[in-house]
Amino acid sequence: MLALTVGALGALLALGCAGVGTTRAPLLAASIYVAAAIVSAALALIGAIRLALPVEAAPESLILPIGLPWLGLHLRLDAVSALFLVIVHAPATVIGLFAAGYARHEHAQARVLPLYPLFVAAMTAVLIADDAYAFVLAWELMSLASWALVLAHHDEADTAPAAWLYLVIAGLGTVCLMGAFGVLAAGAGAYDFASLRAAHLSPLAGAAVVLLVLLGAGSKAGLMPLHAWLPPAHSAAPTPVSALMSGVMTKVALYGLIRMLFDVAGPVPWGWGAALTVIGGASAVLGLLHALVQTDIKRLLAYSTVENLGIAAIGIGLALVFRATGQTALATLALTAGLLHAINHALFKSLLFCGTGAIAVATGTRDLERLGGLLARAPLLALGMLAGCVAIAGLPPFNGFVSEWLTFQAILSSPRLPEPMLRLAVPLVGVLLALAAALAAVCFVRAFGIAFLGRPRSPEAAAARAPERSLIWPVLVLGAACLILGVLPGLGIGLIDPVARTLGLPGFPGGGAFALTVGLGSGRAAVYSGLALLLAAGVLGLIVTLALRRFSPTPARRGAAWDCGFPEASPTTQYTASSFSQPLRRVFGPAFMARERVDMPKPLETRAAGFAVQVADPIWSALYRPAARLVEALAERINVVQFLTIRRYLSLTFGALVLLMIVVAFGT
Amino acid sequence: MSGVLFQIVQFALTAALAPLVTGLVRRVKARLYGRIGPSPLQPYRDLWRLLRKEPASAQTASPLFFASPAVAFVALWLASGLIPTFTTDLALASAADLIALVALLALARFATALGGLDVGTAFGGIGASRDMMIAALAEPAILMVIFTLSLIAGSTGLIRIIGFMLGGGVGLEISLSLALIALLMIAIAENGRIPIDNPATHLELTMVHEAMVLEYSGRHLVLVEAAQMLKLLLYLSLVGAIFAPWGIAETDTPDGLMAGLVLYLMKLAVGAAGLGLFEVAIAKMRVFRATEFLGGALLLALLATIFRLIAETI
Fold first, then answer.
1. Residue B174: count of CB within 10 angstroms of its CB
2. Number of domains, chain B
3. B86 in contact with chain A, both atoms CB, cutoff 8 A
4. Strand A516-519 to strand A525-528: parallel, antiparallel, or no bridges (unpaired)?
């Protein structure tokens, strides 16, 4: 199956090449996207088949004679890679089909089409890489391909700075990963993962590896404080690419975290797990607070990606903590929670981005303040987006609730940790998660309510027509998947179970396809059965409907809105996206450095009154500005070296050579 | 089999009693204000009258506007059926724990807020926005209360918590009393009672929940009002089930069930009278003071958890 995977990679590269010449014809472009989707479907199937094999089956591996001469290219397909093949390619299949429908509306196809299959191929290559060289190469290819895709609409004002910031932070991440592999390889003497696993490191070197991995993979996942690139980059990219970056590429970053921290870099002390948990909690709350004040839907979704990756990081961090303290059953619970949230997020975030693309096609804008009333104009799109919003808000019966429930159960198990500090700290992360979950509901009531309900807030929204079917049904398919995984969570957990066991943890404690039972010994147990609740709700709903039919047969009369007797015809009197989030903007003011400016003319003045709100991310002034200034100052100093005479250069080279020889002489 | 039967009885019971509890609170308040007040049965008559009226709605209302009260009502009805009131032998009580219960309440709120935004009026928006803000602040607090209970009883399942409380394993505990105060504060906020919101106000700018549902009439208003009544009953049952579980039958004997039922009715009466007394004694706050009120609830719940953790460590 690994050979098939490599073949699929080749097919994707060929599609990329084919994309170079066919950008003028929309039909050809669409067929290339469809072909990429078919390859993705095949890859997802390969992953699923590999997961269905018994856990004891030896992972397939392959060494290709390309790459560094003495190393070759090591590839390997085990259960962890297989799960992420499914997580990446199941949504990528639907996104590919959406992209085919979207091709007619993409004006910069020449910059998107050749790179799209390359991006998908690079993500796949990260998942099957089995040596440091192949991993970093694929990782960097993934970063560069997505960076070039972000730049596709380079003529828009915000794109260039967003892409530049992305390039800087992606470069930083790759350097960190290279550093981590360098330290590991120094202890192992070779670069393939099998040797790296056996490396013996001093505690200090081990800590350096974990820190570098957290920085390298964490920045790609958009975890605090390295999240600043994510919202601008994800919102500047063409919509199918945004869906891939937010829904899928962040999962590849999680794969990097899990592969390194659970597998290659060996057992990690609990302190690092605790750090990841706290970072996850902070990302969850701060990401969502910022999502809450955005008016560009894509930016809002990108900030919510920071939140959801934070939730997944809480699960993964707790799993590290539990594993390091010897509670392997709880480690499985936490890891399952984190991975299930990754699966769920891949589904509903792809859905929401595709739906946003359809909104933009229908109205020509994705600014919430200019939308409204779309439910009447595109009812099927509204249905799909509603499913996505309920799912991402973590409400039953959809899938987002299941993984948040599992994460809560993992947090609630923290009193069994041996460290008193941890026992006090983890409940605080629980508060952060609860706050994030509650704010998510506010954020997506706002996103759906302002865009689809109410009256149109602009002429574009009033003139909107339902987008073509090919843009709507991918949204509906993903919505159905969210519902199915929410009602039958056993399907998702069944995929994750082999991964936990491959990583040396026991299987999921209790479960089954229909009801989630978390039984953790010593009388601790909790049950959630989405199916039972859904059936009961169905019966109750039927009773309510029949009772209303029987006792209240009068048909409804339509008239003007009541609005306390003063209905106002102008749609500007409605609540807007900014006014909806105003109460929470006040409550959590410092988190956005929110500034409200009211410009009220004096009596008899004839100019219009004005009101403006400015929000900013405090992380910019706290971390990024000082870092940028530091780099600039250092560059200024080093700049001196650029204007030396040839003699000075030669003596510098000579000095460096001598120094290197001394190091080599004493080092060995 | 008995579980299914009792589950049906429980659903019928909560739906039937909800208007009575609201009527009782109004009656108590009226008497304390020195008025005679309407009979406690008045809410039944109001609901019936609304049911028979012709519903009038805005032209801009979408299908979601009409579906949202039904979704909210069903979610709350389902949630109220999950809390053991007179017996723990309920078919669904083991299908969902307290976290799922909180999520069902959140689903009801989600649906109601969307309904408020649907017609596109200023009042619907202001109500939805403020209601969601209050809920966003209340939810972390209620989850900390659940955390404390799970620390004490070892599970988030209500049956287990009730069994543990009835088992006499707990004495008078400081963390339990803090959790109780926090839960009461949350219940007041979530039900839109004074001092957070005023269910009887007709001054539009001070309304939260009432502003959100301003556009509903006829049978749709019946569902909205009934959902609100169910929510009050639900919180009273929840407080009763956790902090005063006496009488809830753990085995199916006719005497035990009768005793459970009678005690449940008495608990509801005491709860309704207590709420009426509290509302008469206190003044409404400004909307943005709700932050402090709910921050206080969160802090109390957090203290409850930390006291419990420290007690376990020592």
1. 12
2. 1
3. no
4. antiparallel
Per-residue pLDDT of A108-163, as tens digits, reads 888 888 899 999 999 999 999 988 889 999 999 999 999 999 998 888 888 888 99
The pLDDT score that the predictor gives to residue A525 is 67
Distance of CA B75 to the CA centre of its chain: 12
pTM: 0.93
Task: In whole angstroms, give the CA distance from residue A485 to residue A119.
Answer: 27
Task: Answer yes or no: do A558 and B61 touch at CB < 8 A.
Answer: yes
Question: Which of B103, B154, B160 lies nearest to residue A396, judging by beta carbons?
Answer: B103
- CA–CA dist A617, A229 (Å, integer): 12
Cβ–Cβ below 8 Å for B136 and A584: yes
Contacts of A312 (CB under 8 A, 6+ apart): A254, A280, A338, A339, A341, A342, A345
Per DSSP, A131 falls in state B
Question: The tokens 């470069």 sit on which residue?
Answer: A171
Contacts of A590 (CB under 8 A, 6+ apart): A618
Q: Which one of B107, B132, B139 has the shortest CB-CB distance to A396?
A: B107
Q: Which residues pair with A64 in a beta bridge?
A: A73
Report helix, strand or coil for A274. helix
3-class DSSP assignment, residue A448? helix
Identity at B138, one-letter amino acid code: A
Å between A414 CA and nearest CA of chain B = 10
Question: Which chain B residues are closer than 8 Å to A445 by Cβ?
Answer: 110, 113-114, 117, 128, 132
Whether the CB of A512 is below 8 Å from some CB of chain B: the reply is: no
CB-defined contacts A:B, below 8 A: 267
Q: In b/e form, how buried is each residue of A602-634, taking b as 16+ CB within 10 angstroms?
A: eeeeeeeeeeebebebebeeeebeeeeeeeeee
Element (H, E) at B260: helix B254-281
Question: Is B290 within 8 Å of B196 (Cβ atoms)?
Answer: yes
- Residue A430, chain B, CB below 8 Å: the answer is yes
Q: How many helices (H) and strands (E) does chain A have?
A: 28, 7
Tell me the residue range of the domain where B271 lies.
Answer: 2-313
Whether residue A308 contacts residue A210, with contact meaning beta carbons closer than 8 Å, is answered with no
H/E/C letters for each residue in A180-195? Answer: HHHHHHHHHCCCEHHH
Work out whether the CA dihedral A182, A187, A188, A190 comes out positive or negative: positive
Evaluated on CA atoms A532, B141, A279, A439, the torsion sign reads positive
- What is the distance between the alpha carbons of residues A60 and A58, in angstroms, rounded to a whole number? 6
Task: List, for chain A, all residue ranges whose pLDDT scores fall below the cut of 70.
Answer: 22-24, 510-515, 518-525, 667-668
Out of A439, A525, A579, the one facing B125 most closely (by C-beta) is: A579
pLDDT in tens, A310-349: 999 999 999 999 998 888 888 888 999 999 999 999 999 9
Instruction: Please give the Cα distance from B51 to B44 (Å, whole number).
Output: 10
CA within 13 Å, CB half, B121: 28
Inspect the interface and report whether the beta carbons of B122 and A574 lie closer than 8 Å.
Answer: yes
Pairing of the two strands B56-58 and A595-599: unpaired
* Chain A contact present for B43, CB below 8 A: no
